[in-house]
Specification:
Layout: H1 11-25, E1 31-36, H2 39-46, E2 49-51, H3 55-65, E3 78-82, E4 85-88, E5 95-99, E6 102-106, E7 116-121, E8 128-132, E9 136-140, H4 145-155, E10 158-163, H5 164-178, E11 182-186, E12 188-189, H6 195-203, E13 211-212, E14 221-226, E15 235-237, E16 244-248, E17 256-260, H7 264-271
Parallel strand pairs: 12-13
Antiparallel strand pairs: 1-7, 1-10, 2-15, 3-6, 4-5, 7-14, 8-9, 9-17, 10-16, 11-14
Helix pairs in contact: 1-7
Length: 272
């Protein structure tokens, strides 16, 4: 990006612009990223063959390698730590019994075999807007130099940029054909003891697939989890992706995205 000169955009102007574009395009990402270690796997993705793994695989991966990231020993497990438990008479307040601190573990056995496919998704408001006028807006990825430097090592040599609308439509049609429920949304990185996370596990809500611990927030993950049997070859075959491009991961920092528009509202928001 060196050598390019862009206008400075205030936070207020950016917020106005993003809000107007979201009114047209929605709040979900405009595209998804899928990283692969080799070109063959990248071609599989473009052909609509999405390789799935289950929570057991990701738990075992951290235990096997000792590295937390792609592997996550807490995957689809809710741990609730208590400092002290007391039982008392509600009328007198007298303490009847106490118990020392401990850890509760909540896990659904059926989750161990659920097929999951992971992507990176970046909503428009998280992108870096670098230039805008009445007709267009330019964006770069929001990754830091350190994140770019580690991407190939952590995620893979190749990256597929996929149209969000096409991917979401094909996933929906696949699940209709297979007659299976699914969830596909962004991961919420939060503490284990946050109330909505606890409730998702207590009620068995499918949203329980969308929580991970805060230390993994750099992954910016969007997750697909399907209520079906894992295919024997592990491939979720949604059909060829026409709007997908393979890049080397090292090229991502140079990628500029331009949105062209003619909306009267957007023009007004930039002029304000």
């Amino acid at each position: 990006m060196e050598g390019n000169i862009y206008m400075e955009i205030t936070k207020e102007s950016k917020d106005h612009l993003i809000e107007q574009i979201e009114n047209l395009c929605g709040r979900r990402p405009l595209f998804y990223l899928k990283f692969c270690s080799c070109k063959e796997f990248a071609n599989d993705v473009c052909n609509g063959d999405l390789y799935a793994n289950n929570p057991t695989y990701f738990r075992d991966l951290e235990l096997k390698t000792g590295e937390r990231g792609q592997g996550d020993s807490c995957e689809l497990i809710s741990y609730i730590e208590t400092e002290r438990i007391t039982m008392c008479d509600s009328e007198t307040g007298n303490i009847i019994m106490t118990a020392p601190k401990g850890t509760f573990k909540v896990q659904f056995e059926g989750d161990n075999s659920v097929p999951m496919v992971c992507f990176v998704g970046i909503p428009l408001r998280e992108m870096n807007i670098v230039d805008a006028d009445e007709k267009h807006a330019d964006f770069f990825f929001p990754f830091t130099e350190e994140e770019y430097a580690l991407m190939e090592e952590k995620f893979g040599k190749y990256c597929i940029i996929i149209s969000a609308r096409e991917l979401e439509n094909k996933i929906q049609k696949y699940c209709i054909r297979q007659n299976c429920d699914y969830v596909f949304d962004g991961i919420d990185y939060c503490p284990q003891n946050r109330i909505d996370r606890i409730q998702a596990f207590n009620t068995g809500s499918k949203e329980r697939f969308l929580y991970k611990n805060e230390d993994l927030s750099y992954q910016r993950e969007y997750r697909l989890a399907l209520a079906c049997e894992m295919p024997e070859d592990h491939f979720i075959k949604i059909g060829k992706l026409e709007e997908a491009t393979i890049l080397e991961t090292s090229e991502l920092s140079n990628m500029k995205f331009t949105i062209h528009y003619t909306s009267h509202n957007i023009e007004d928001s930039i002029k304000d």
